[in-house]
Amino acid sequence: MTAKIAYDEVEAGTELPAQTFPVTRATLVRYAGASGDFNPIHWNEKFAREVGLPDVIAHGMFTMAEAIRVVTDWAGDPAAVVEYGVRFTKPVVVPNDDEGAVIEVSAKVAAKLDDGRVRVDLTATSAGQKVLGMSRAVVKLA
Amino acid sequence: MALDQSFVGRTYPPTAPYEVGREKIREFAEAIGDANPAYTDQEAAKALGHPDVVAPPTFVFAITFKAAGQVVEDPQLGLDYSRVVHGDQKFAYTRPVRAGDRLSVTSTIEAIKSLAGNDILDIRGEVHDESGEHVVTAWTKLVARAPEEA
Fold it and tell me: Is ipTM > 0.90 here?
């Protein structure tokens, strides 16, 4: 494991470079295939509405996968992430148009832990709504 | 109807090994749009100290969730899966999942709660490789929403 960020270079409050991730219906179909999650709420508008959703929604695990990219891109080595957890608070609604939705992710070092590790808190929003809660990673730095 | 509390602590048999393929990792990385070379380029992964390409942090969910199917579909537990949503997800890694791993999952029901008519089920999946070494633990909280009044 070889993170490119040194523990001594960061402090509580250090912000990671924020990123935005577009998501369209095509993205969701592709993620369904790659992940094996074919729940129709992620691709079938009629079905989604029948179960009370406003429209097709992104897989929660897709949003979780995008959010941690802010940390893995920062740390360089994905194996630097030793813990990662989220709460799925609101769905990412994905309309059937060329634009789809956007997930905006920011993150900052919340605390320095022992053994070269830091806790990073993530914030993920879409259409102004917080889509992940309690979103935290423990990251082992160099 | 509330789920039977006596299922708390129940552990299901380990799953048959899932073999992690390089191309499956590539497919997953492309699906999340992540161009990190550690997922697709063996040399880049080796430069980071890994014996082969590694999987993105959430990749293992596909394996642990399939394993959790033993719990979710246990007719004795009687969970109404058509009403289930994913509440929380957490992973703790001993090492990253990598190509060539043969992973087996042991699922345990950690908690069952009933809140405002919703059934809340916490499942822990312990993932081990072929040599029995721990790779990652996945905690999945599922919420079965209360049926609407007819």
Answer: yes
Q: Tell me the per-residue pLDDT of B44-70, one tens digit each, with 9 for 90 and over.
A: 999 999 999 999 999 999 999 999 999
Tally of residues, chain A: 142
- Residue B116's CB: how many other CB atoms inside 10 A? 6
- Positive or negative: CA dihedral A131, A40, B137, B97: negative
Question: For B74-97, what is each residue's pLDDT tens digit?
Answer: 999 988 887 888 999 999 999 999
C-alpha to C-alpha distance for A22 and A101, rounded to whole angstroms: 6
Give the DSSP letter string of B98-123.
BTT-EEEEEEEEEEEEEETTEEEEEE
Sequence ranges of the domains in chain B: 11-20+55-144
Give the integer Cα–Cα distance in Å for A134 and B5. 27
Torsion of CA A105, A108, A112, A114, to 10 degrees: 20
The phi and psi torsions of A78 (rounded to 5 degrees) equal: -60, -25
Superfamily of domain A7-23+59-140: Hotdog Thioesterase (3.10.129.10)
Indicate yes or no: CB of B92 within 8 angstroms of CB of A88.
Answer: no
Please name the member of A34, A72, A88 whose beta carbon is closest to the beta carbon of B86.
A88
| DSSP category for residue A66 | H
Domain ranges of chain A: 7-23+59-140
Q: How far is CA A128 from CA A102, A105, A121, in A?
A: 10, 12, 18
What is the CATH code for B11-20+55-144? 3.10.129.10
Residues of chain A found within 8 Å of residue B93, distances taken between Cβ atoms? 79, 81-83
Q: Does A68 lie at the interface with B, CB-CB under 8 angstroms?
A: yes
